[in-house]
TrEMBL record:
Matches recorded under InterPro entries: Cyt_P450, Cyt_P450_CS, Cyt_P450_E_grp-I, Cyt_P450_sf, Cytochrome_P450_fam2
Predominant location category: endoplasmic reticulum
GO BP annotation list: organic acid metabolic process; xenobiotic metabolic process
Protein name: Cytochrome P450, family 2, subfamily c, polypeptide 70
Organismal lineage: Eukaryota, Metazoa, Chordata, Craniata, Vertebrata
Extent of the signal sequence: 1-25
Family: Belongs to the cytochrome P450 family.
One Pfam family from the record: p450
């Protein structure tokens, strides 16, 4: 009996200590809802629609507030001004990336997307240099996208106008473009290995964007009871093994004077730094970095296109205007190119509105402060998780009237010219913004216009009955599965 009393007293003391620590921290951190011991504010947040929860809390506590997803605080930045001040004006202080426990078990702090410090700085600098050397942002990569887009057209013709789910075929183009960059070869769409890579990559995206993942990140022990997370680990390991085999083949045929792709450049860099014990250029980092580039270069663009086709079917009047502009500016006998975009303001506006409306990453993977930060009168300690609400910017009703409505007019002026907006940040902003933003925009424009140049889109139901609501609205918004018919123009 005495033992139970002692344990009860100890537990009570721990709870009181936790509450005191939270209150002490909240005295320095921005305001926010009072957290419960251990679970924090998890019961006050709708994990199936985190953006909506953050919008509601921002109305109470302002554009900078604190929530506890578990026992540790997360500072939330809400609205354009708060994001700009933190991520652009004071970007260096917010360049850390909070490691998700799910990812950290695979990446171990390596790569580009989830690394920090010197690992991130050196790997990112090197990767950007290789990207530029290999022609990203130049005509060479544009030619590659055009070639792959035509392969997609041929594959779509083989559907003979029958109903099909476009998910896999839309993934093939960006995946092959990125494969040519990292592996120096493309895959046939019927290649089983290629199909498996895309399938596993898509499965992992669904896991990462699922609301359950946020709960597991707050309580990592839950990873071990989640079947989807075990599948995530398995898929990731298979992908890394595939990359390792590619690296071994590259080692056999490497010519240091004539690098062919990203892996060759990385192998050459490794050789140059082999005597530097502090070098970030290791075999493990090459595998993880290559995996990061492969995943990021495939899923975001293909998901945006899949959602985009759904929206165009939902709004046939928009689709008709885009196809009229394509026919007038490009015609039917040459491939669309980036230069065409300057003469296609409506199509450009549609591509931007697709990205704004779908809100692909409403709550990106949290940042982390790299030092103690004094921000708007609050003290944010080094290593504090920082959550940015991109929804609050992309759906700002002062910048985008009626933001809940799909309207290309959000990016057009009164004369019908394309209108840029600082609020357009689907790739986030600042030093940790998506490294492949330029490539993604190029792919989106060329691939979508190529498809619409050759096909009209026929939904299987009345357009008004199409469901355009996302499957997940946690850290990612994915479109629902659907089928359509690609009818040759």
């Amino acid at each position: 009996m005495a033992l139970f009393i002692t344990l009860g007293i100890c537990l009570s003391c721990l709870v009181l200590l936790a509450l005191w620590n939270q209150r002490h921290a909240k005295g320095k951190l921005p305001p926010g809802p009072t957290p419960l011991p251990i679970i924090g504010n998890i019961l006050q947040v709708d994990i199936k629609n985190i953006s909506n929860s953050m919008n509601m809390l921002a109305k109470v506590y302002g554009p900078v507030f604190t929530v506890y997803l578990g026992m540790k605080p997360t500072v939330v930045l809400h609205g354009y001004e708060a994001l700009k001040e933190a991520l652009i004006d004071r970007g260096e202080e917010f360049t850390g990336k909070k490691p998700l426990s799910l990812i950290n078990k695979i990446n171990q702090g390596l790569g580009i997307v989830f690394s920090n410090g010197e690992m991130w700085k050196q790997t990112r600098r090197f990767s950007l240099s290789v990207l530029r050397t290999m022609g990203f942002g130049k005509k060479t990569i544009e030619d590659r996208i055009q070639e792959e887009a035509l392969c997609l057209v041929e594959a779509l013709k083989k559907t003979n106008g029958s109903p099909c789910d476009p998910s896999f075929l839309l993934s093939c183009v960006p995946c092959n473009v990125i494969c040519s960059f990292i592996f120096h070869h493309r895959f046939d769409y019927n290649d089983k290995t290629f199909q498996s890579l895309i399938k596993r990559s898509h499965e992992n995206l669904e896991v990462l964007t699922a609301p359950w993942t946020l709960v597991c990140n707050a309580f990592p022990v839950l990873h071990y009871i989640s079947a989807s997370h075990r599948r995530f680990f398995k898929n990731s390991n298979i992908q890394k093994q595939f990359i390792l085999e590619e690296i071994k083949e590259h080692q056999k045929s490497l010519d240091p004077n004539n690098p062919r792709d990203f892996i060759d450049y990385f192998l050459i860099k490794m050789e140059k730094e082999k005597h530097n014990k502090q070098s970030e250029f290791t075999m493990e980092n090459m595998i993880t970095t290559t995996s990061d580039i492969f995943g990021a270069g495939t899923e975001t663009t293909s998901t945006t296109m899949k959602y985009g086709l759904l929206l165009l079917m939902k709004h046939p009047e928009v689709l008709a205007k885009v196809q009229e502009e394509i026919a007038r500016v490009i015609g039917r006998h040459r491939s669309p190119c980036m230069q065409d975009k300057n003469n296609m303001p409506y199509t450009d506006a549609v591509m931007h509105e697709i990205q704004r409306f779908i809100n692909l990453a409403p709550i990106p993977i949290p940042r982390e402060t790299t030092q103690d930060v004094q921000f708007r009168g609050y003290h944010i300690p080094k290593g504090t998780s920082v959550m940015t609400s991109l929804t609050s910017v992309l759906f700002d009703d002062k910048e985008f009237p009626h933001p809940e409505k799909f309207d290309p007019g959000h990016f057009l002026d009164e004369k019908g010219n394309f209108r840029k907006s600082d609020y357009f940040m689907p790739f986030s902003t600042g030093k940790r913004a998506c490294m492949g933003e330029g490539l993604a925009r190029m792919e989106l424009f060329i691939i979508m216009t190529t498809v619409l140049q050759h096909f009209t889109l026929k939904p299987l139901v009345d357009p008004k009955d199409l469901d355009i609501s996302p499957v997940h609205t946690g850290v990612g918004s994915l479109p629902r599965s659907y089928q359509l018919c690609f009818l040759p123009v």
